[in-house]
Amino acid sequence: MVAVLGRLRERGLRRTPARQAVLSVLVDAPPDHPHLSAAQVHDRVRASGVRIDLTTVHRVLIHLTDLGELHTVPVSGAMTYGFADHPHHHAVCTLCGRVCHLPAEAVLTAVQAAGAVGFSADPAGLPGGVVVVYGRCDSCGADTRRPGSTVQLAERSSSRTRSTT
Length: 165
Description:
Elements: H1 2-10, H2 17-27, E1 36-37, H3 38-47, H4 54-66, E2 70-75, E3 78-83, E4 88-93, E5 99-103, H5 108-116, E6 129-135, E7 150-155
Parallel strand pairs: 4-6
Antiparallel strand pairs: 1-3, 2-3, 4-5, 6-7
Helix pairs in contact: 2-3, 3-4
């Protein structure tokens, strides 16, 4: 978190209570769910005693994503946010929502295959595109409620409204 705040300061951005609270929640995210939705971030920030509006949380998350400090991964119909601090992609369980980081080199073949059919994705997963593999985690593997896994390219949500939060 200190590194992110330092990079924001270098860009001339202030260390606001909202930014600090949002970043703190993301730093404390559990390893098996390193990405959180705006609603989850909002709930955790409020549980820590900080009064903040959900709209402000959205603005902070979008701004940090636009700056390349965070990236997004669609999980269970919601956009989730995680740190874009090292090259990686994601495996997402369609049943429990568990997110695991995959090393960038582990999905290089899929990224190259996407390029061969006209799709452009950053092989490192930063900042332009992230490969997301949807399927079932080991804990949910025996559950047959959902169809098999799919692979999807998800781009950062940089088209959203920029904010100076």
